[in-house]
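Input record (Table S2, row 410):
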Amino acid sequence: MNDTCERVVIVGAGHAGGSAAALLRQYGWQGPITLIGAEPLVPYQRPPLSKGWLKGQEAPADLLLRPAAFYQTNRIDLRLSSSVATIDRATRTTTLTTGESIAYDHLILATGSHARPLPVPGHDLHGIVELRTLADADHLRTLLHPGARLAVIGAGYIGLEVAASARALGTDVVVIEREARALARVASVPLADFFQQRHAAAGVRIVLNATVEAFEGRNGHVTAVRLSDGEAILCDAVLVGVGAAPNDALARAAGLDCANGIVVDLGARTSDAAIHAIGDCTQRPLPRYQRAGRLESVPNALEQAKQAAADLCGRPPPAPEVPWFWSDQYEVRLQIAGLPFDVADIVVRGDPSAGGFAIFHLSADGTVQAVEAVNAPAEFMAGRLMISRHRQVVAARLRDVSCSIRELAG
Ligand code: FAD
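Output record (flavin-adenine dinucleotide complex):
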């Protein structure tokens, strides 16, 4: 077990940082823990920000990872509204933007990611928002009401979730996407088709192959999105949801190895033995797929928080998990397990028009690499098992819904 005097400093009080602090105590860490967060709120969950919270269906307490009193009870020194500006690896010291220095024996970087900007003319007009924090969500909420017109830039998960929530609030929605289909970077063609049809049925217009040239406004407030083909989409508000980038500037300035995020191993260790990194800000090994990548998901934040806490507490590393993710839009619960690398065949099981189906991604030898399950929790669970066990399946049997999915998973 650790020396009782050793201090852990965690930079970033989000899903990964907040979980790491709690897990350190759970695993028996005795020394001081300081959790530094730029936002004014104790660690909270971001997924509801585009879903239930935006629709006004959740209470503030539902958002919190743990009640505020948890941190005091567990001797976690929570420093909110505080940003770390620099890391001095030689003296093992972090410095806040206020100039205050905080020394560490072990540092955990959990700085998350930020919304990519869309720096076209007019981007600073009022009514143009991004969605990353609770403050962003509360601002966006004030712009959504019956009859208001929202333009969503980007048909990724956040853009589509906001579109669904905005429709539930009676707002007119146009989604503008640069690629030829929705979810182009993150989902298969059949899944994108399904969501495009579902949004169209809800009255959402999705404009594909569309490049935003400028935002236009009157009296400082956005009034239209101008596309490169000349069309002006009239609107009262804009959500820019064009992806996220890792918050790795601190790590880069400190000289840590970085690629698409801070490079870590399966113990969440960086290139400095005194520094771990976890969550959206990292590029991590994906052992099931024999490559590295950056994941933006709650399950990933939790898995890496476990890795770092176990490593610091001298516990065996947790078994690698199959990456997974979910998204809620309208009555649709999407669950995705695995990553679609080396895919030779896509098998649709079930009927998309009936609203419940699953898309399995198989490699050339029939190994299940990923599954996208729409209102199909049994297929999601079975798929996750198949992926972790490198299960090979016969496509025709997988497609045949009379073959039990549990039996196929073995
Ligand atoms: P974050 O939770 O972003 O926390 C990072 C924190 O670090 C932030 O509070 C930031 O202010 C702070 N910080 C950064 N730099 C500093 C600094 N220098 N000093 C101090 N503090 C700093 N995932 C899913 O799996 N399913 C979903 O349905 C889903 N929906 C989402 C919906 C929305 C609207 C958003 C924004 C994300 C969603 N995600 C979802 C992604 C998920 O929330 C993230 O993957 C997860 O929050 C990552 O945790 P993290 O701790 O790495 O980063």
